[in-house]
Amino acid sequence: MSSASSAPDAPATTAHRTVLLRGGDVHSPADPFATAMVVERGHVAWVGSEGAADAFASGVDEVVDLEGALVTPAFTDAHVHTTATGLALTGLDLSSARTLAEALDAVRAHAAARPDDRVLLGGGWDAARWPERRHPSPAELDAATGGRPLYLPRIDVHSAVVTTALLDLVPGVRELAGFRPGEPLTGAAHHAVRAAAHGAITPRQRAEAQRAALRHAASLGIGTVHECGGPDISDEDDFTSLLALAREESGPRVFGYWAERVAGAKDADRIRELGAVGAAGDLFVDGSLGSHTACLHAPYADAPGTGTDHLDAADVADHVSACTEAGLQAGFHAIGDAALSAVVEGVRAAAERVGLARIRAARHRVEHAEMLTPATIAAFAEFGLTASVQPAFDALWGGESGMYAERLGAERAATLNPYAALLRAGVPLAFGSDAPVTPLDPWGAVRAAAFHHTLEHRISARAAFTAHTRGGWRALGRDDAGILVPGAPADYAVWRAEELVVQAPDDRVARWSTDPRSGTPGLPDLTPGVALPVCLRTVVFGRTVFARPNE
């Protein structure tokens, strides 16, 4: 990819340049055969053919020869924990540990390499994938760290193992709900220990982690992230410092959701004062399947009990009603079928109070929404709820021998993450990663939805791509972004990709088409095993926030 101008990319404080990109493939519904695009004042000004591009060449500040590269809208990741993602990128990440012994070796090496850290931080472990089939014990962690404080959340971040030294820093933790000697912490005990661990992070460490996460996102063609913060996840300083950093420095856009219950206008005003766009995100109705804390109608297949319910239908109704009255977007974290039933019952009650039209107009959202039934899917459609979902969950935990089947049994597991049924019902989808639970990987998420473990839940690559680009903007209430058409914000990414194809979602029909008569913009071949596209450049509001070296 070459440019007729050798001037460096403009920093965020300088004026916009008018740029013509040509000689590639531009993914745009305005012209399915587009090869060129003009960007002016931070917006798409024109999309069209190579021949028509000649008319613009002399009137722009810069001409970029795409050299056959693909231009798409930048991705939006609709569910991210930015600081935690950055800490995982720069700290102890156990997601690749193949055994418990290997994880303990990594803890030992990390402790030796960080002698000055007040609290050691890590994460990403998943005992379900280890041959030992058990979590690290406190005694093992005490030995591996030399008796230092260590906070080590499970991959889903709904439970954690810690050292004795960290427990000793949290007075009364052993009396809190969720504390069982020798077992991973859950509930209130987990939240208290997490707060203590994160409180040990200095502002400098936090800013470094946030920058690392946003730089990594930009390098993957992500132009926008939805930060999911809240008092049970991070803290107000973390949330506001991230929003400030994103405003002040060049990088992806950050929209913040703050997961705290709203009872009236005063609460809504405080949420807005934090800079949040909604009282949503990880406002927990339940927990996670991996930690046996997702709330189910029937018991788990591999453990007693039906999980944990943090909010009931009445709580949901009160929050949704208050947010709707205040003109604020509401939302919840809900995974289990019982939790999702509570959400839709609560939203129904709220609609009876404030009116269905106002509920639909507010575009309230639900994070994860995994154990849906035909009835709850129909309710999502009725109330205009956005399903903010993570296809990588199925890629990681789905299938006949995956964690879902272990927790629920094969029959219930096969109902999870029914993306095709959601789309058929008209439910808006917004894709994300829940990073650091699963990595930032937008093309991987599109592939995971197109090649879902359960055949009937698969959707086309085109629908999945839309959910990971335009879907995130629609979840914010914006219908004019996440798409390359004249007037849209110039948030785009440039990719090195092989032949473009049009993909059907079902193996029982022809999967690929390169016939130009289809009139459908093509996408890269996402067949498992095929290399994913490589991001060459990411642009946000017309300004470059990532450029791959030597490209």
From TrEMBL:
Alphabetical UniProt keywords: Hydrolase
RNA-binding keyword on record: no
CDD domains: YtcJ_like (cd01300)
SUPFAM superfamilies xref list: Composite domain of metallo-dependent hydrolases, Metallo-dependent hydrolases
Keyword field contains Hydrolase: yes
Domain Amidohydrolase, residue spans: 62-546
The EC number(s) this enzyme carries: 3.5.1.91
One Gene Ontology term of the molecular function aspect: hydrolase activity, acting on carbon-nitrogen (but not peptide) bonds
Protein name: N-substituted formamide deformylase
Organism of origin: Streptomyces hundungensis
Gene: nfdA_2
